[in-house]
Amino acid sequence: MTVLIALPKGRLGDETLARLAGTPFAPDPAALKGRVLHIPTATPGVEALLLKGADLPRYVAGGVAALGVVGSDTLDELDADLLELSDLGFGACRLSLCAKADVSLDDLRTKAHLRIATKFPKATARWLEREELAAELLPLQSSVELAPLLGLADAIVDLVQTGGTLKAHGLAELAVLARTSARLVAGRGAYLGDPARLGPLARDLTTVLRA
Amino acid sequence: MAIRTPHFPDLLFDAASRLRMWESALLRLLADCGYKELRPSLVMREPMAQSAMRLFDQDELVGLRWDFTEALARLLASRFAEPPPRIAYAGAVFRRSAASWEAVERWEVGCECIQASGGDAAEADLDLARMLMAVPAAVGLKRSLLHLGDAALWRRPLEAEAVPAPLAAAATRALHQRAPHRVREALEDHPSSTRIADHAAFLASEPDGLSGLDALESSPFAALLAPDIERLIARFQTLQALMPPGVDLRLDLADVADLDFYTGPTLRLWAAGATASLAAGGRYDLLYPELGKPWQAAGFCVRLSALLELRDSRPELFEATP
């Protein structure tokens, strides 16, 4: 039976595809450009599936794809029962609390009604609990950095890679909640039901992606 | 828009008939080994698990049966002065899962072997393992894997390093995900974090034969675990000699899902294509003493819902049925 590997779209996907290029797991370039659902790779019996990062864990947990590459930030927001076989090291970001450059962490701590906009409500709630802070969480899907500029929120929790976007919007990083990176995940059933096949494949994929 | 989750599956014709057929075949298998059926009520009035489905019976909050072992234990501990005979059960349990797409109503068949403390646990464990090995043939599953695990390989290092309970629980969750890198994160600044994470990396290797234990020789806890490893090798060899055709035995050193429940080796049945284990069991000697009875117990549960799902998605894995 064909083994399906779910690969993410977007920035993490670009880096994943660059690392896979020229390896036995490189997806067929022609199929990548087309609208092919199952993309053949250089290894017979192994195909790739391109998915949005937030959906990818569900496809792996549901047994559609056996393996997948996804950011740890996405995993931490879901309750999917997945095996997280390795930290691939790339796509490293900080999940940070950020606010306008003239606002300090103490300013936020003393606000009577703190509002935080984020795409990462679970990670933010965990941090607030650790810090014994109460806040209203405003879930947003995109351009989170606009929320403090337009007065929707006092601060944001978002992924920061270089800090360039923050700087461009006059925002500053006040606290690092977590460090995130790409992870190789496997479906529990897919891996434990066929370890002789999936185990070596996962090890080879880890080696290729960490190189 | 109405969102209907969690869901309660309806079984139509073929699936209903298959469930009935498997339930009968498995109860017959257990009856042939001296297990008698017992049916605890579908309603439980005891303190409820977080995952239970709750409802009101007039002013009283009750829960639907969420676990046969617990339902039976409460019934047996209150009704019997001595350990009762070997027990079989079949029926539905209702349990909310973290994954919203998983059915809440699940069908199970299982057995419990309860003895007075100090009884011959090894013989009982072997009997249960033999019956579990016979499950695939009883349901017509052509190829499967039986995973042997032993949580002592994880519990003992955590105890030896005096890891506080919340950190130990977080590290155990990480090992259950087979993520040694998360074990290190979970242990934060605990002085043992590097040693325990290194040990977790050895345990998280893929399920294999006895060669899977070779790597453990390099674990920082190799000396501490030597007696446990010796016992596990002996058990593996005993079971290996009994394996029926079509069932492969593997060691799964990272099977720590029920660390607080099982007190000895565990067995889980898997098949390629299944999204969950098809059966699971082991020894749980702490349950009855918690209910005031000096009894020890072991058992296993066959997850008929997982088998039905597998039959639906991978019919070629099963013998054709008339």
Which helices and strands appear, and what pairs or packs with what?
The complex is a heterodimer of chains A (211) and B (322).
Chain A: E1 3-8, H1 10-20, H2 29-33, E2 39-40, E3 46-51, H3 56-61, E4 67-71, H4 72-76, E5 82-87, E6 93-100, H5 105-109, E7 115-118, H6 121-130, E8 136-139, H7 146-149, E9 155-160, H8 164-168, E10 171-180, E11 182-187, H9 188-193, H10 195-210
Parallel strand pairs in A: 1-3, 1-4, 7-8, 7-9
Antiparallel strand pairs in A: 2-3, 4-11, 5-11, 6-9, 6-10
Chain B: H1 13-32, E1 36-37, E2 43-44, E3 54-57, E4 60-64, H2 68-79, E5 87-94, E6 105-116, H3 121-139, E7 144-150, H4 152-160, H5 165-176, H6 180-186, H7 193-203, H8 222-242, E8 247-251, E9 265-270, E10 279-283, H9 287-290, E11 295-303, H10 304-313
Helix pairs in contact in B: 1-3, 4-7, 4-8, 5-6, 6-7
Describe this structure in words.
The complex is a heterodimer of chains A (211) and B (322). By secondary structure, chain A is α/β, with parallel strands linked by helices. Chain A contains 10 helices and 11 strands. Chain A folds into 2 domains: 119 residues, D-Maltodextrin-Binding Protein, domain 2 (3-Layer(aba) Sandwich), CATH 3.40.190.10; 87 residues, D-Maltodextrin-Binding Protein, domain 2 (3-Layer(aba) Sandwich), CATH 3.40.190. Helices cover 35% and strands 30% of the residues of chain A. In chain A, strands 2-3-1-4-11-5 form a 6-stranded mixed sheet. Chain A has a 5-stranded mixed sheet with strand order 8-7-9-6-10. In chain A, helix 6 links the parallel strand 7 and strand 8. The longest helix of chain A has 16 residues. Chain A is elongated, with a radius of gyration of 19 Å. In chain B, the strands form 2 sheets. Chain B has an 8-stranded mixed sheet with strand order 1-5-6-11-10-9-7-8. In chain B, 44% of the residues are buried. At the A-B interface, strand 5, strand 11, helix 9 and helix 10 of A face loops of B.
